[in-house]
Amino acid sequence: MAESIEEIIQNRPTEPGRSPRYWIKTYGCQMNVHDSEKYAGILSEMGYVPADAPEDADVVLVNTCSVRERAEDKLFSELGRLRILKEQRAQGEQSGPTELLVGVTGCIAQQRGDGIVDKQPAVDFVIGTRAIQTLPDVLEDVRKTGQPCVNTADLVDFESNGASRQDAVRAFVTIMEGCNNYCSFCIVPATRGMEVYRPADDIIDEIRGLGLRGFREVTLLGQNVNSWVDPATGMGFPGLLEAIDESIARTEAADGERRIERVRFLTSHPKDLSPRLIEVMASASHVAKHLHLPVQSGSDQILHNMNRHYTATSYLAQVEALRAAVPGVGLSTDLIVGFPGETDADFEATLELVRAVEYDSFYSFEYSPRPDTAAVTQYEDDVPDELKRTRLIELQKTGQYIQAQRNAAWVGKSTEVLVDSVSKRSERDVSGRTSSNHIVNMSGDQALIGHLVDVEITAHAAHSMYGQIVGEPR
Q1: Number of domains the chain contains
Q2: Global confidence as pTM
Q3: Residue 61's closest CA among 41, 40, 80, 77?
Q4: Residue 342 domain boundaries
Q5: Residues paired with residue 467 on neighbouring β-strands, in sequence order
Q6: What's the rounded mean pLDDT across residues 370-393?
Q7: In terms of CB atoms within 10 Å, which of 62, 109, 117, 230 comes out highest?
Q8: d(CA 365, CA 348)
């Protein structure tokens, strides 16, 4: 067992008058973003402070995603640059601390393990997706032995109270890890493991604490979040949402302050979108009126080959039920084009489904074969890259047209917006989201960040809207 954090801090090499620094590069989904927040929190507890760039860091983490084919190429390109930086440090050609430890974490770390060190000797340590809390021990082991350390143990720990949150308004809360679905294109079971669920009481306690710290919105995270089950009671995900909603209401009643305004969740699987979950989304006052429901394809044959366990017809029925129960609900999805065997008719079925649903937004990707997935062994990647790209462009154009039309319907209406940042459009504007997850930019002071405002929508584009604040912030 390594030394305590206090001993590590005392024995760590550093320069007089200078705090050691860390730099984290994050690829991938919200789960990876939150994992990086956890790593940053651990390093902060060890006495490190953030660096502005890897050139000024003592420890560099590259937190990886392996969902797309080029993710590994990006990783080793980054590691190549870091190798040069380490060599320059060792030769005194680059200013800054003499020590530079390079680590790889996340999904590729879990998947490749020792293979990363074998391919790129500049890597000092590798930590898998379920071994985040071992970072202090791993760093100490590397320093003591001078040898690379690889830890991909199954040590699920949902602890995130010490996470260095990147956002002062919105916070991520992990409620489960892993996935049991084995979609044929998906690498998650190989990198995140089987589903493990966090107890409801722990989830509610963390959300209560985030409210007391001033956060206004939380997003519940899981690879298949709506399959969550409480390990102790067997309560399902709809029950968890109700319990969170009731806890927030009790806290507000007890201290007379509005704290957490909205609870979101990512990502849901259509097979687990139950009538009960739709009912809770309609009735729970703090649950945001937005659902991310990945469909992947509109072709029943492709859905079967993807091992998705639903049809386009059953998916459309779920959308109809959701919109009937939750008026104005925002709906987003994920789509893959060019899955093995996808014909022109299959792709047209996807376009037809997109037109029928009229998504508020979606993420779309070209299929890329991934190791350790069923699709690699079962199907030939027979859709040419050029055709994949052509289909992706057509799909995105269709989606952008629909999104612009849907956003146009907001003009002249007023809606409630939680202001969460300075606008990307202009530093004179602020930005926020509606309950339905629509982005709204507006003229306003940065003091509005963290407040709810009513906004009259005056203009729109495909991906956002613009409006004027009416009334007082709250």
Answers
A1: 4
A2: 0.90
A3: 40
A4: 295-408
A5: 442, 457
A6: 96
A7: 109
A8: 16
Residue 107 lies inside a defined structural domain of this protein: yes
- Which helix or strand (DSSP H or E) is residue 6 part of? helix 5-11
| Residue 462 dihedral angles phi and psi, to the nearest 5° | -70, -35
> How high is the pLDDT of residue 10?
44
Query: Domain end: 232, 267, 288, which one?
Result: 288
Distance CA 1, CA 6 (A): 14
pLDDT tens, 210-267?
999 999 999 999 999 999 999 999 999 999 999 999 999 998 878 777 789 999 999 9
Q: Is the dihedral of CA 390, 391, 396, 398 positive or negative?
A: positive
CA atoms within 13 A on the CB side of 469: 20
300 and 217 share a domain?
no
Distance between CA atoms of residues 236 and 234, nearest Å: 6
CA distance 373 to 144: 38
Q: Is residue 156 part of a domain?
A: no
Report the SS3 class of residue 76. helix
Q: Are residues 141 and 184 in the same domain?
A: no
Q: Please indicate, yes or no, whether residues 39 and 58 belong to a single structural domain of this protein.
A: yes
Per the structure block, which two tokens stand in for 217? Answer: 């919105």
Pick the closest to residue 312 from 300, 321, 322, 304 (CA basis): 300
Q: Which of 90-94, 274-278, 340-344 has the lowest mean pLDDT?
A: 90-94
Same domain, 278 and 310: no
Which residues are within 8 A (CB) of 86 and not within 5 positions of it... i.e. 6 or more apart?
A: 100, 102, 122
Q: Say yes or no: 190 and 282 in one domain.
A: yes
Percent of the chain exceeding pLDDT 70 equals 95
Same domain for 422 and 392 = no
For residue 17, give both structure tokens: 């008058």
Q: Are residues 334 and 425 in the same domain?
A: no
- Residue 11 pLDDT level (bands cut at 50, 70, 90): very low
In total, the chain counts a number of residues equal to 474
Kindly write down the DSSP assignment for every residue of 256-311, as one continuous string. Answer: S-----EEEEE---GGG--HHHHHHHHH-TTB-SEEE---B-S-HHHHHHTT----
| CA 247/CA 182 separation, integer angstroms | 34
Answer yes or no: is pLDDT of 382 > 50: yes
Q: For position 12, what pLDDT does the model report?
A: 47
> Does residue 219 sit within a domain?
yes
